[in-house]
Amino acid sequence: MQTLRARFSAAAETYDDYAAVQREAAEYVCRQCVDWAQPTRILEIGCGTGLLTAGLHRAFPAAQIDAVDVAPGMIEAARRRLADADAIHWIVGDVVTAALRESYDLVCSSSALHWIRPLERVGQLLADRLTPGGVFAAAVMLQGTLGELHQVRLEVAPDKPVFERLPSVDSFRHLLQQQSLTRLHDQQQQMVVHHDSVERLLRQLRDQGLTGGHFSRSAVPLNRGELARLRKRYQERYATTAGQIPSSYEVGYFTWRR
Fold first, then answer.
1. What whole-number distance in Å separates Cα of residue 234 and Cα of residue 24?
2. 85 with 73: CB under 8 angstroms?
3. Average pLDDT of the residues in 223-232
4. pLDDT tens-digit series, residues 126-153
5. Is 33 helix (H, G, I), strand (E, B) or coil?
6. Which one, of 87, 84, 85, 83, lies nearest residue 39 by Cα?
7. Is 70 exceeded by the pLDDT of residue 212?
8. Are the CB atoms for 84 and 58 separated by under 8 Å?
């Protein structure tokens, strides 16, 4: 957790420069909230730089929003984005252990829940905090995200697997079913971002703070030779005819009611 907090705080100033996928995901979640909820109390899990928070505040100007993130740098960036929003309570910390209101009629998140380990803590949070009839809406990064990078990494360093895999769509649905939530809307979408080079892709992931979690790290880091082979193989296998380097994201959208 400390590593993740530090990485995201350090990336707060550059995160939005490369957040096309995360921005689109936040906009989708916000539309789902508007379609299915009429909240007065909102809990946002992993607010980051405030991409979803801003949409929620515009859509529900009278609602009280508790926006939580583990990274102080991200909270500061979000505060600056929404400096005039008095109805937002910014909370730095782990959402599972943070001092929260007793209940919320909307719990939402975009591109953040997969960082909570173990994932069952999300289910417990919903059980504890989501009101009967309340809505849960989220975008979650799923297995297959950065699939090209993970495949090449495994090939060049098979003895250095990453600690964990992202959740599957079925495992996340099962988590919600265990809390007796009812499905309102689900969708899985693949988004592909193109980069000028493999080096640029890796730099952008670092500048978003995405290299500090269990999904990208192993017990022993790659050495220089392995990194060089990774870049070469990625280029050879996946470069488009125009020389662009793709990176794929599998995004699951979940809107459920308690």
1. 26
2. no
3. 96
4. 999 999 999 999 999 999 999 999 999 9
5. helix
6. 87
7. no
8. no
Kindly report, residue by residue over 91-125, the tens digit of the pLDDT.
999 998 898 988 999 999 999 999 888 889 999 99
Distance CA 229, CA 69 (A): 36
Minimal CA–CA distance to 111: which of 23, 177, 174, 36?
A: 23
Euclidean distance between CA atoms 93 and 87, whole angstroms: 19
CA gyration radius, the chain: 18
Instruction: Give percent of the chain with pLDDT exceeding 90.
Output: 79
Q: Is the CB of residue 19 less than 8 Å from the CB of residue 50?
A: no
Which H helix or E strand runs over 240?
A: none
Domain ranges in the chain are: 2-257
By the 8 A CB rule, do 110 and 43 touch? no
- For residues 54 and 63, the answer to whether their CB atoms sit within 8 Å is no
Contact 8/70 with Cβ under 8 angstroms? yes
Range 2-257 has CATH code 3.40.50.150? yes
- End-to-end, the C-alpha distance of the chain in Å comes to 29
Contact 94, 70 (CB under 8 A): yes
Q: Please, are residues 25 and 114 in contact by the beta-carbon 8 Å criterion? A: no
Full strand arrangement of the beta sheet holding 104-110:
88-92, 64-69, 41-45, 104-110, 130-141, 245-257, 182-195
pLDDT in tens, 24-70: 999 999 999 999 999 999 999 999 999 999 999 999 999 999 999 99
